[in-house]
Structures are given as C-alpha cells and as structure tokens.
Amino acid sequence: MGTWNYRIIKHDFLEQECYTVHSAHYENNRLVAYSAKPSDPFGLDLSELKSDLEKMLAAHKRPVLSLASLSKKFNLQLNEEEKDFEESFLKLGLLNQRFPDDYRVVKDDICEENSMQIYKSPIDEDDDSYFHLCFPETAFGLNLKQLKKDIKKMIQATKMPIIKLSDFYQ
User: Fold this and answer.
1) For the chain, how far is it from start to end, CA to CA, in angstroms?
2) Which long-range contacts (CB under 8 A, 24 or more apart) does 62-65 make?
3) Can you say how many angstroms the Cα of residue 86 is from the centroid of all Cα atoms in its chain?
C-alpha cells in the first residue's frame, strides 16, 4: 500500500546549502518517489491549508534527505530546463532570505476550486513588485532552523485576514 509524507531535502547550490520541503512517496515503507519541485502549502480551505503546513513542520522529525543521494539512488539526471528551474528557484530562495518574512494567505476565488495558498505580502502598498503573485511561496531555509522558522511564519499567516485573488484583477 502506498503512503506519502513530507521530507526535507538538502540542496547544495553555488557552494551554499539550502533546505526545502518535498512530498515523498513510499511502497511497503520504501521510498519510491519524491516531488522534483519543492511543495507549496495548499488547502481548499483555511483548515486544510494549516493542516498541510503542520505536516510540513512534522518533516523536521524525520531524517533529512540529500538531493545528491536521491539523484544517485534514482539514477536521475536533470535536463537543461530542469537545471535552469532549479537554479532560478534556489536563487529566488536565497534572494527572499534578504526580505522580511511577511506571508499572507491568498484565496483563489477566480477558479472553481477556491484553493488557498501562501504568498509573500508587499513591503508597502505602493510597490507590489515584491508580492510573488505568480508563484505561491515554498518554505526555504539556509539551515534547518531557518526552514522551521519559515514554516512557522506561514502558519502564523493563517491567523491574518485572507486576501482574495480577485482583488488583484479589478
């Protein structure tokens, strides 16, 4: 029977370690697959979103996986497009470490699904270029303590007023 949970994966990028949360899939208690891209917290309502974040936080209780080891285990080679994505994602994560950790829950009230995800909020109302509206946030840390803090800040965001996606398209 297949099961899944979240696992922390260590990346070594440009001589810098960083950590992200990925979904891991098991058959007979054996790791058989993991998500190539870090997982975005997701829920159809606030309760589901918070539950998903709590599951990500629980990943700290499990051993950290290494992307290098996983690549060898599964005999994976990234193609150029995947390498470019990985490089862009990790550069963005390193860049985000320089900005305040102010997250907000955004409800997608435009699509039928009405899902909720976490986004960074703007530094100020006149400059929304900081708001990553096109990409939901992924937990990221340069070390495990920082990653855990990032997830906890996302959980705190579930206690703030929810922003509707339609407000950005008026």
Assistant:
1) 47
2) 62/5, 62/7, 62/8, 64/7, 64/8, 64/9, 64/10, 64/19, 64/144, 65/7, 65/8, 65/9, 65/10, 65/22, 65/24, 65/34
3) 13
CA dist., res. 154 & res. 51, Å (int) = 12
CB 64 within 8 A of CB 141: no
Considering Cα of 59, then 62, then 66, then 70, what sign does the dihedral take? Answer: negative
Tens of pLDDT along 78-127?
Answer: 666 666 666 666 666 655 555 555 787 888 888 777 788 887 765 444 55
Question: Which is nearest to 60 in space by CA: 2, 9, 136, 3?
Answer: 9
Q: How far apart are CA 68 and CA 11, in angstroms?
A: 8
Look at the block and give the residue holding tokens 């285990």. Answer: 73
- Bridge-based pairing of strands 42-43 and 116-120 is antiparallel
Bridge partners, 164 (sequence order): 107
C-alpha count within 13 angstroms, C-beta hemisphere, residue 87: 8
pTM of the complete model beyond 0.85: no
**Two structure tokens written together for 139:** 């937990």
Query: What is the distance between the alpha carbons of residues 94 and 80, in angstroms, rounded to a whole number?
Result: 21
For residue 140 the two structure tokens come to: 């990221």
**What is the DSSP-derived secondary structure letter of residue 165?**
G
